[in-house]
Fold:
Amino acid sequence: EEEEEEEEEEEENVVIDEDNENNREEVRRPHSYVGVSDPPVSKILKEIKEAIKVSNEKNVQAHIGLSSQEVQHLTMEAARFFLFQMEKNGNAPIPRALYTEAMAKIMKGKKVRNVASYILPRAQLRLLDYLGLELKEVQRVTSQVEQSKSKSAETTSTTSFILRSAQPIDARVKFVDKHIPKTKKMWRGLVVAISSIIQVNGGTMEESALFRALGRFGMRASYNGKGPGLGKWSNDFECKHCEIIPKLVSRRVLLRDKITAASGNDFTYQYELGEGALEHFSQEHSKQFVKEMMHSYKEELQPNIGP
Structure:
């Protein structure tokens, strides 16, 4: 059994090209997928079905008071809401309060208690069944700076939703990614790279250190747009350098806080990962991603030595 597990780990980041059975070529996954495991779809499905049962028991008024046609209509509207918000805001986390408000408007004045909670697992099931998307509820991340400020004050926990693919990685690479614009692929890779840099640095990073690290990749990062060479990183990348970090902050991939500089005479900014990073990233992902990238660079930099 241990040997089988080791073989599975070795094959985890390899895609098999089955188009040509006579030449089954092993193709390395794109770097942004390195270290990413296939989503546990059966587990996700089981949890959603269990959530529907619990919802029926907790939200009796909605379960009894809504007809099957109303439930189906509300489920479709809820799924549309999440898809629309994902497209509108670049897949930034969607606050639960915004979803609850939208469901109240869809009800058009009909009073049914906890209708948003009742419909939610049904919308999750529909998105998974029809589109292969996991709608995951996550806790809003509080930065270290915010935590230190609110130690004495009572804080209320809020949640948001993120949409992410539940398709197997190899299927995404082979069938889905070829239809994705190159700009979106580059953005995904950049998000993973920046997130990994911060993660391997201990989870936080000062702005100057982060920008120096990005400079080693040939990217002159900026937050306010000042400085030379802050145009597009590449013709295939839609975002200017000065827009990258603000976009990641607005989508809560990164959290940005003002802190006192080490000198004590000035201030700087500190970055850490927010809940928006979960759509692209995990701790296991970062370790494997960095390891793979360093291995690739080493191969590229080695001189071509003949036999």
